[in-house]
Amino acid sequence: MEFIKPQNVNETLRALKKWGRKGLLVAGGTNVLPDLRARKISPEALIDISRLESLSFIKAEKGGIRIGALTPIAVIAASTILQKKAPILCEAARHLGNPLVRNRATLGGNLAKSSPAADTAVPLLALEAVVAVQGAGARKRRIPLDQFFLGPNRNALRAGEMIQEVSFPLPSPGSKMAYRKMGLRNAMAISVVSLGVLLDMRKGICRRIRIAFGAVAPKPIRIYQAENVLLGKEITPELLQACGTQAEKEISPITDIRAGAEYRRAMVSVLLQRVLSEALGMGT
Amino acid sequence: MRKPKIYPVRIKVNGEWRKTAVKAAETLLHTLREKLGQTEVKEGCGKGDCGACTVLLNGKAVNACLTLTLQAHGQEVTTLKGIGTRQTPHPLQESFVKHGAIQCGFCTAGMIMAAKALLDENPHPTREEIRQGISGNLCRCTGYQKIVVAIEAVSSQRTEKK
């Protein structure tokens, strides 16, 4: 196995092109090293991008927020600008792994691994994030996050491409957001169910709503039909219940070591109603 | 089979530059223990679940088992032996002894490094913040309560000195 340490993004893209599927990008290594140890993967080259500082940034611009792929999860968790503009992303980052993992793990790595339970994917889906990817000699592609994930550990990255940054439009100042992760313990938990919501209310009517779930389908998902239940309506406890019932129809949970499919299905409705009430300050 | 490639590496361990040579996928944990003799860094699970191998990489607490040695090339690594000695123990080491925060001792080195990183960043954490700060470190003896008390004592000592 070879170790390659490109000095910049262009060198990284060239290395990726040269090695193709046999080359593996390593940033924080928190996904790669356990997989190497378990012999789940056997790349011929490790391409170390952990020190590519140019891809580690959080920028608030007029149109929105841009976050570099190599931004550590701990930096996202502690970011004051994100805490102000997109607190659900900070909250999800604070619940990823544990402090040791968060110091190394990166946003790009969490998305590239494409776990159905990827912690940062859920708030980013609710924020309608777009992933910018690029390969050597190719133009940058911008992929909406809800088209990026294809299935368990599968995504729309082509051979030779890497994630460069993630961006999302600034939520309107009055946007209401909430996030919840249900795990078996507080730290080092892989979600049983996780969800994030974003709502815009005007004169008591729901004008915009985004609902995203993790760990209840082959990939992190938005549930559009359930959103439509609330859109354009005054939100009542009855309507929240109808929304929860619809949500149950849009998911396809599995039974695994952490929870049964039926339990997950039941929790989706319960947690959705709770999290929406919390976002709206309705109290349950 | 092709001969595996070996790469030279230079790491500042506890303030002293150390040189060795490693394969591409070698972990910092393996290098520290097997090549540099830093056996105070413990191997528990080897896959980032237990925190026994916690060291500071440029001041941040990380799992040595999840870090490639070559990623630490030219960087600073601090282990337990880098923060205190038998003659001049670190306040956390004294406090762990005083409060009985050590049972079998296997988690202690990593636990103290995680605690040090926490106090460096947040000198006066709440109890909850302490619990979160060491949430990547497992104590199989389940002696968490005394560990939290020991860390809290160091934090409040620092207040009194002010």
Can you describe this structure in just a few lines?
The complex is a heterodimer of chains A (284) and B (162). By secondary structure, chain A is α+β, with helices and mostly antiparallel strands. Chain A folds into two domains: 2-169, Uridine Diphospho-n-acetylenolpyruvylglucosamine Reductase, domain 3 (2-Layer Sandwich); 176-279, CO dehydrogenase flavoprotein, C-terminal domain (Enolase-like, domain 1, 2-Layer Sandwich), CATH 3.30.390.
What do you see in this structure?
The complex is a heterodimer of chains A (284) and B (162). Chain A is α+β, with helices and mostly antiparallel strands and 284 residues long. Chain A has twelve helices and 14 strands. Chain A has a five-stranded antiparallel β-sheet with strand order 4-5-10-6-7. A four-stranded antiparallel β-sheet of chain A has the order 11-12-13-14, with helices on both faces. In chain A, strand 6 and strand 7 form a beta hairpin. The longest helix of chain A is centred in the last third of the chain and has 20 residues, at 261-280. The model of chain A has no long low-confidence stretch (mean pLDDT 95). Chain B has 162 residues and is of the alpha+beta class. Chain B has two domains: 6-82, Roll (Ubiquitin-like (UB roll)); 91-161, Orthogonal Bundle (DNA polymerase, domain 1). The termini of chain B are far apart. The mean pLDDT of chain B is 95. Chains A and B meet through helix 2, strand 3 and helix 6 of A and strand 4 and helix 3 of B.
What's the helix and strand layout?
The complex is a heterodimer of chains A (284) and B (162).
Chain A: E1 2-4, H1 9-19, E2 23-26, H2 32-37, E3 45-48, E4 58-60, E5 64-68, H3 73-78, H4 80-85, H5 87-94, H6 99-104, H7 107-113, H8 121-126, E6 130-135, E7 141-144, H9 145-148, E8 149-151, E9 154-155, E10 161-169, E11 176-182, E12 193-202, E13 205-214, E14 221-222, H10 224-230, H11 237-250, H12 261-280
Parallel strand pairs in A: 1-3, 2-3
Antiparallel strand pairs in A: 4-5, 5-10, 6-7, 6-10, 8-9, 11-12, 12-13, 13-14
Chain B: E1 6-13, E2 16-23, H1 28-35, E3 54-57, E4 60-63, E5 76-78, H2 91-98, H3 108-121, H4 127-133, H5 144-161
Parallel strand pairs in B: 1-5
Antiparallel strand pairs in B: 1-2, 3-4, 3-5
